[in-house]
Design a protein that fits this description.
This protein is of the alpha+beta class. It has 5 helices and 17 strands.
């Protein structure tokens, strides 16, 4: 009806083709405005895409050292996705620089075994991944060669944690093996290359003796040194160069029984590479128990 009225109006004014074109153009505009005003086409409605996780990856995961985990996916920004940890890590903190497609989280494992990272959106689990926290390893570079030690936190957690505090502080760099006794031990970690004793930077350590841990003072083990006071260990350690745990029924055993002597000495790891270096240090010329030429510990680094 509207079209017919407009058509008659224009026809009465001359039935001009130009006027017909103008009429059609105006009709199109009016129709579009009317359709939009009525909500046609759904303009103005914002649809939030559902987040998704394609993978959870990690860097090197280390006991007692910050380890990172990256959640990758789509629409991960804001509070859309929550990330939690369980197992060897009780919680995670988010690192700066995340995007809607990649967010990185960090934790410091306090046990060996598995750490699980879970990403959720509301009550929906998007993805979970588990990573292994291995026994920590440290690499000791000395003037006589390199020694790699695997630590055993599951058996001696306090002792391992204490040792790693000094390692990761860089405390052992440019120290010496100041006490060498052939057929017994090589000891270091307390004196600088200048011969001056270093002050401990952490509290004294509660003894974890072999009678508790089950770790025995056999050849190739690393052990905390201490005074005659049981809970007096700080930074100094030694390597057993022989089995210092003689058994009365084993006539091949030699050395002092450090498992029981004076309450025992805390074993917390084993040499897994470089026992030949330990033996080289054991053989250096000494005066008393002090090497005639200093054996330098150039660095001790947690490498796993």
């Amino acid at each position: 009806m509207l079209y017919e009225r407009y058509s008659q109006l224009f026809m009465r004014k001359g039935n001009c083709m130009k006027e017909k074109i103008i009429f059609l153009f105006i009709s199109a505009i009016v129709g579009t405005v009317f359709f939009s005003a009525c909500g046609g086409g759904g303009e103005g409605q914002v649809v939030t895409p559902n987040p998704s996780v394609t993978s959870i990856t990690s860097g090197t995961v280390m006991y007692a050292k910050q380890s990172s985990f990256t959640v990758n996916g789509n629409y991960l920004g804001g509070n859309a996705v929550a990330v939690t940890a369980s197992g060897a890590c009780g919680s995670v903190t988010e690192l700066a620089g995340g995007t809607s497609s990649s967010r990185t989280f960090a934790c410091k494992p306090d046990s060996v075994g598995l750490v699980s990272i879970t990403a959720t959106a509301g009550t929906t689990q998007l993805q979970q991944a588990s990573f292994t926290v291995p026994n920590p390893q440290v690499t000791m570079v000395t003037s006589s060669g390199t020694i790699v030690v695997e630590l055993i936190p599951e058996k001696a957690p306090k002792t391992v944690t204490n040792f790693l505090l000094y390692v990761n502080d860089g405390f052992y760099s440019n120290t010496t093996f100041h006490r060498v006794i052939s057929g017994f031990v090589v000891q270091g970690g307390g004196f600088g290359a200048d011969g001056i004793q270093k002050n401990a930077s952490h509290p004294t350590l509660e003894l974890e003796p072999p009678s508790v841990t089950g770790l025995t003072n056999s050849q190739g083990t690393i052990v905390m040194a201490r005074t005659t006071t049981l809970n007096s260990a700080t930074s100094q350690f030694f390597f057993n160069t022989v089995d210092n745990n003689p058994n009365a029924t084993d006539t091949s055993s030699k050395g002092t029984n450090l498992d029981t002597s004076g309450g025992g000495y805390a074993v917390f790891g084993n040499v897994i590479q470089g026992m030949d270096t330990v033996k080289v240090i054991e053989a250096v010329p000494v005066t008393g128990s002090a090497p005639n030429t200093p054996v330098i510990i150039r660095s001790v680094t947690q490498t796993l």
